[in-house]
Amino acid sequence: RGTFVNDQSSQELAARYSSIRGENGERVGEEVELLNVSEAVATDMECARLRLSSQENVHRIRRLRLSDGKPFMLEDVAMPAKVFAGLSQSTAPSYQIVILAQQHGVLLGKGKERITTGSASAEVADALRVEPSASILVLDRLIYTLDGTPVEWRLGYCNAAGKHYLAEIK
User: Fold this and answer.
1) Cα→Cα distances 168→17, 95, 111, Å
2) What are all long-range contacts of 99-105, with beta carbons under 8 Å and residues at least 24 apart?
3) Would you say 16 and 111 are in contact if contact means Cβ atoms under 8 Å apart?
4) Contact of 162 with 24, CB cutoff 8 Å
5) Cα dist. 47→27, 42, 151 in Å?
6) What is the pLDDT of residues 46-63, one digit of tens each?
7) Residue 165 neighbours by CB under 8 Å, 6+ apart
8) With a threshold of 0.90, does the pTM exceed it?
9) By CB atoms within 10 Å of each CB, which of 42, 81, 127, 135 scores lowest?
């Protein structure tokens, strides 16, 4: 009973949105290389996934996740610009959703992730240092606020060799 305070930027809470593990079961991907940040009018797919009106802007973030210095996931992220104002102009922002949410007064809720397999495009293969058309996992994730509003859509292209996906049931 009583009041509980959760640090929304804590590693424990951030970990709930990261399910990739190494062979030893430990979380991987803490090393992140930011490749690009921009702001533009949302595409039809971004509008549908983030429940935006046409002509609304999104921030697009491309980043590369590494494990032991080797790339294993290329991520394309879209976030509503109206929720995360000024993100693409920031000089040294964090691009972790839990930190961004805290900075912008957003309370994060659940996330949903759909996993499929696919073939690496030439661009993805180059980033992940695999052969073009190599088998990859495609992680399609939406993160919502407590009231159910989508605030981050991520497509992750993952070379899962030596990695596994952990689904915890709570």
Assistant:
1) 11, 25, 13
2) 99/9, 101/8, 101/151, 102/8, 102/9
3) yes
4) no
5) 31, 6, 11
6) 999 999 999 999 999 999
7) 19, 20, 21, 115, 137
8) no
9) 135
